[in-house]
């Protein structure tokens, strides 16, 4: 496949290595919106910055190029992108986290939320830790985890640095040099603690997931998620 990398930072470079190993060609690598013709690509992979994601994705959809986006921090415009994709009969996948491990963790989190829903003794919190260059907080993955709990419990919303309440899931975001991404869900009672945690050791899992998603999306139309790609039921 001829791949366009929209965003050639930490993730763009990691994706390039994996894509080349899997026999793909990188035809565009860009860190701005100027001077490239997206129609030269079979598929585009956007790992850029929150302020550029919507314009990068829309450009691909408008040129009938299937597009994968892993950029976080722009989701208030997700519905707008989905409408454009449906209107243009394009192909699009967004995932806050492309790694297989985190996508399994998402499902585990939903199951645990269902089990804990009727039990009143525990207070719930989410913690995410990332490197100090990260632009957005909380992480997209932490938001997906909170949404998974909201869909399966009486919780109504998440809030950064909130105190615990019946309706609110507090998320804390820590920034520590070099941490690729650690997410913890914690249910705490007076007598014990139940914790599930995913720790990324490096960025290879995110990058492999994005390339696998790109391979999967080519030839399809519609809006999909990693659950579709990984067939997680
Ligand atoms: N979904 C997932 O699995 C994962 C998602 N992410 C997310 O991916 C995004 C990128 O992460 P990361 O690679 O670490 O960040 P980096 O800052 O290393 O890379 C971002 C790149 O985007 C470039 N850029 C800026 N504006 C544009 C534009 N208009 N078009 C194309 N590229 C542009 C930047 O260029 P310059 O430096 O010149 O400004 C930079 O090279 C973040 O939102 C992060 O949260 C990260 C890991 C996994
Ligand atoms: O910025 C990062 O690095 C990461 N961002 C994603 C997020 O916001 O969840 C995924 C991963 O945790 C790394």
TrEMBL record:
Keywords from the named record: Amino-acid biosynthesis, Cytoplasm, Diaminopimelate biosynthesis, Lysine biosynthesis, NAD, NADP, Oxidoreductase
UniProt keyword annotation of Cell membrane present: no
CC terms in the record's Gene Ontology section: cytosol
Residues that coordinate or bind NAD(+): 70-72, 95-98
Catalytic class of the enzyme: oxidoreductase
Limits of the Dihydrodipicolinate reductase C-terminal domain: 101-230
Domain Dihydrodipicolinate reductase N-terminal: 1-98
Keyword hit for Chloroplast: no
Reaction(s) catalysed (UniProt annotation): (S)-2,3,4,5-tetrahydrodipicolinate + NAD(+) + H2O = (2S,4S)-4-hydroxy-2,3,4,5-tetrahydrodipicolinate + NADH + H(+); (S)-2,3,4,5-tetrahydrodipicolinate + NADP(+) + H2O = (2S,4S)-4-hydroxy-2,3,4,5-tetrahydrodipicolinate + NADPH + H(+)
GO biological process, one term: diaminopimelate biosynthetic process
Predominant localisation class: cytoplasm
One Pfam family cited in the UniProt record for this chain: DapB_N
A Gene Ontology molecular function term of the record: NAD binding
Positions annotated as active site in the UniProt record: 130 (proton donor/acceptor), 134 (proton donor)
EC number(s) stated in the UniProt entry for this protein: 1.17.1.8
Subunit structure: Homotetramer.
HAMAP family: DapB (MF_00102)
Family membership noted in the UniProt record: Belongs to the DapB family.
Chain's role: Catalyzes the conversion of 4-hydroxy-tetrahydrodipicolinate (HTPA) to tetrahydrodipicolinate.
This protein's name: 4-hydroxy-tetrahydrodipicolinate reductase
UniProt source species: Polaribacter pacificus
Designated gene of the protein: dapB
């Amino acid at each position: 496949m001829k791949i366009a990398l929209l965003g050639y930072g930490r993730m763009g470079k990691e994706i390039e290595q994996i894509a080349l190993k899997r026999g793909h060609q990188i035809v565009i690598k860009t860190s701005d919106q100027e001077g490239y013709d997206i129609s030269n690509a079979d598929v585009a992979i956007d790992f850029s910055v929150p302020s550029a994601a919507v314009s990068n994705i829309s450009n691909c959809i408008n040129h009938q190029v299937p597009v994968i986006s892993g950029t976080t921090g722009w989701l208030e415009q997700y519905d707008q992108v989905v409408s454009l994709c449906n209107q243009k009969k394009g192909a699009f996948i967004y995932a806050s986290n492309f790694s297989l491990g985190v996508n399994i963790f998402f499902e585990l989190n939903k199951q645990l939320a269902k089990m804990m829903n009727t039990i009143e003794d525990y207070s719930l919190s989410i913690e995410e830790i990332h490197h100090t260059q990260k632009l957005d907080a909380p992480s997209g993955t932490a938001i997906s985890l909170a949404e998974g709990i909201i869909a399966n419990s009486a919780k109504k919303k998440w809030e950064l640095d909130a105190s615990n309440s019946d309706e609110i899931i507090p998320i804390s975001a820590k920034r520590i040099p070099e941490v690729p991404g650690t997410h913890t869900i914690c249910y705490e009672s007076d007598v014990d603690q139940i914790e599930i945690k995913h720790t990324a050791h490096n960025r290879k899992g995110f990058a492999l997931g994005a390339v696998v998603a790109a391979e999967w999306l080519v030839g399809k139309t519609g809006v999909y998620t990693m659950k579709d790609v990984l067939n997680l039921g």
